[in-house]
Fold RAP domain-containing protein.
Amino acid sequence: MNNRTGSFLWNLRQLSTLVPTGRTMRLYPLAFCRPNIAYSNWNRRNLLNTFDNKMQSSIRYLFQDALIFKSGGDGCQTKGISTVTAFTVDKLLCPRRLSLDSKHFLASDNELKKSFHQEASDEDVLTKRRKPTLINSRKLSQECNSLSDVLDIFSKAPTFPSSNYFSAMWTIAKRMSEDQKRFEKQLMFNHPAFSQLCEQVMREAKIMYFDNLLFSLNAIVKLGIPQNTLLVQTLLRVVQERINECDEKCLSVLSTILNTMEPCKNVDVLLAGMRMLVDEQVWKIKHVFTLQTVMRSIGKDAPIGLKRKLEMKALKELDQFSVLNCQHMFAVLAAMNHRSVILLNECSKRVTSNIHGCPFKILINILQSCRDLQYINIDLFKGIADYVATTFDIWKLKKVLFLLILFENFGFRPVGLMDLFIKKAADESGFLNVKSLVCILNVYSSLNHFYKCQTHEFLGVMASALTGSLHHISSENLLNAVCSFCWMNHFPLALINQLLQKDVIDDLLTSGDVERNAHRLHVVAACLKLDDAPCHKDLDLALPRLPPAPSYPQPKVAAALSDLLGEGRFSQSVRLPHNYFIDFEIRMDNNRSQVLPFSDVDVVTATDIQRVAVLCVPKSAYCLDSTHPKGYLAMKMRHLKIMGFHVILVNNWEVEKLQMKDAVAFLKTKIYSPKALPDADTHLQSTC
């Protein structure tokens, strides 16, 4: 008896060391996420009771994925559910014989082994039946060729988490063309398992890992599932509840999602929560990509304090920026509407020094962002223009045109690139549509760019191309094209005759931007009357009266002219025909050596009087970083000369920097001819 008892206790001690007393065992889910079930309060007494009641309940001994049921008829114990521990046992753990006085437990060693192995075999079969094969989204996207294939696999053997299926479908969709993607999405919506998958994602939303939740939401939005559906709104609400689980990776995914989605109540709440989270964790962000993604998503209306904090973080990480990070920084700052000059200057240097090999799309994005931020960097613009000019032959004409349109927005005139473009546009004008032709004319007329003797040939080619599409061109495009030709002193008769048709004029004055159209029609009329137009000299269009051109006081120039010429020898704010305005008018002799008294009785048309127009010009009237006048100023100067004026341009920003004495000397060199300056000094001394 003592030997049998000792043998049983030894076996019992071996078993007790392998069955911990805490929350240890795990019930694996059959398919989707089920509660993890573990059992506590195990001790030797419970184990002995289990042996005594072997016929009343099943015991699964210490094998992988073992299910342990409490003895008795009260079913599975569900209390004490907590952490999970699983054991793998490859052989029988109790080699010694279990011998008791009770005849229920008298068995030979071979019978005990046979019983254990039989139960292990049954357990393996049951586990294989009940435990699904885990499928990750990458493997699923590699095995399937369509969205419906993924849904078919889901309907046959769904697994947890269901977010893998949506992620796999989005990965597959990215490989498709737009037409194929549209067709596959329609099949996806009509698939019988699609609604089941959506329901399953909503059920799992609160228990799946937070990154899986975000990946599934991102895939759902990218797949084009409407934002106002219950699925999307439910996931947004769950993300709001669990936003504190965000780590850096999740923050990046969440930022991407918010960039994609349209504003709505749940999106706005989630955005506000993300801003608070970023405000707290901005200094913990380690990766530049995550930082830029977050900056892009916080919105233009984010608090200025948060924007500056992100700017400081970016400046701190500037040494870690790659060339690609610097290229993307422009769009990032434009997305958050924050003009950080220091950051933009540093990124501009990196972009300019590594410009070769930069994709054209990135160059366009940089210039668009600079336009939105009103940021001007001459070195950056010159670097981009020189790079495109160097590699001009590899770019399509329309791409270069788009670049020139952006340069025109800044008033930047890349001479070398525009010269190359004139040659290629003249050779390939047949491949350009009406919109492209109108844009080309607008760029070249606005920047007042002429290329040696080829300009007339270039304008002729443009006019011929537009004439061929005359019956397809809209009234507004026709007006824009003719106005650009007039700025450049070129008058294509077919286009002008078509523009002056009564129905076209009526259409322009009753639809679209009427005020802008009326102003352009006045410009065309002025050019036809004043320039060397071959026709319509006596044109009298019934156009609405334009408001007077704005006048800007120039007190410093006026004071300098008074010191230089004396009172009553010049006139201010003079308005001329065709809605022209000049700041100051001076009347001199033909040699511009003597200023004549200014009075209303003077005969303006006299041959011995030279009228001088002093125009005070801002920087915006010139091309960027040059004194080359833009198109409108060049046309105004041309027309003033035709009306008998000698035109003097006075740069406002230069005069403002000068002392009064220097300003007087500066104006004297401008007004008097170089040959007449000594005589002018004598005349001024005699009048003093």
Observations:
- The longest strand covers residues 580-588.
- Confidence is low (pLDDT under 50) at residues 15-109, 125-132, 682-688.
- The beta strands are 571-576, 580-588, 610-617, 645-651.
- The two ends are 143 Å apart (CA to CA).
